[in-house]
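Proteins fold reproducibly. Next comes an illustrative record:
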Amino acid sequence: MTDAGSDNTDAIETPEGTETPKTGTAGASANTAEPENPHGAVVRTLADTMLRTALPVTAVTIVIAAVVATVLNGTAGLWGALVGGVVALASSLATFVMMKQSADLPVMFVMAVALGGYVFKILALLVVMMLLREVDALHTLSLALTVLAAVMVWAGAEVVAFKRTKIPTIIPNSQ
């Protein structure tokens, strides 16, 4: 038998006197380890799938927008599209970060984070776009259309990713 206070990370002594493997980090007992939140695991899986699905198609969208904006509006169009792409990616990646950070919270709080995060992102986009329209080096229409296209493509890819993960939707009993 091993001593429960020893540095052995392979097993711990249970109150019944039997040895069981440790599941936590070194020095942590299995009795104090919290079980993994199944909802949190689902949210993290969904967030990862959404990122893997949305990032490549959004990057392609931004490249296409930059090429079109450059052909139509020159260097200002290129810079407008590239800055618009960065703004759209930052906005979209914020969703990924919020999902990962809030995954282990109770479901009601996850929904509050999602709604609050959405409102914050829309307000932040509004402020950023209002500030960027004053920058003479950027073609504002190229910037705006790139943001719009990239955000819409990202959102569409998130829907596709959600459908592919086959995550069950909980329907509460009406009784």
